[in-house]
C-alpha cells in the first residue's frame, strides 16, 4: 500500500480558508436570525414584509459566502 499524503496547502484550500469568507457567512446568519426574530416580534403585515426581506437578504449573504468557498 502506498502512503498518499493529502495536500492541505494548495491554493484552493488557502483561498477557501480565508477568514473573510467565514466572517461574511456569520454576518449573513446573524442578519437572518434578526429577520426571523422580527417575523414573530410584531403582528402587522408591514413588519412581516420587512422581516421577510431582511431574512432573505441575510440568507443571500450567507449563501454568497458558501459559493465563495465552493468556487475556490
Question: Secondary-structure map with pairings?
Answer:
Layout lengths: L10 H6 L2 H23 L3 H27 L1
Helix pairs in contact: 2-3
Keywords: Membrane, Transmembrane, Transmembrane helix
Briefly summarize what is shown.
This protein has a domain at 33-71. The protein contains three helices and no strands.
Describe the structure.
The protein is mainly alpha-helical. The protein has a domain of 39 residues. Helix content is 78%, strand content 0%. The two termini are 31 Å apart. The mean pLDDT is 88.
Contiguous runs where pLDDT drops below 50 for at least 5 residues:
none
Ends distance: 31 Å
SS summary, helix count: 3
Structural class assignment: mainly alpha
Residue share in helix? over 70%
Strand segment count:
0
How would the global form be characterised?
rod-shaped
Mean pLDDT: 88
Secondary-structure element pattern, one letter each: HHH
Proportion of strand residues: under 5%
- The oligomerization state is single chain
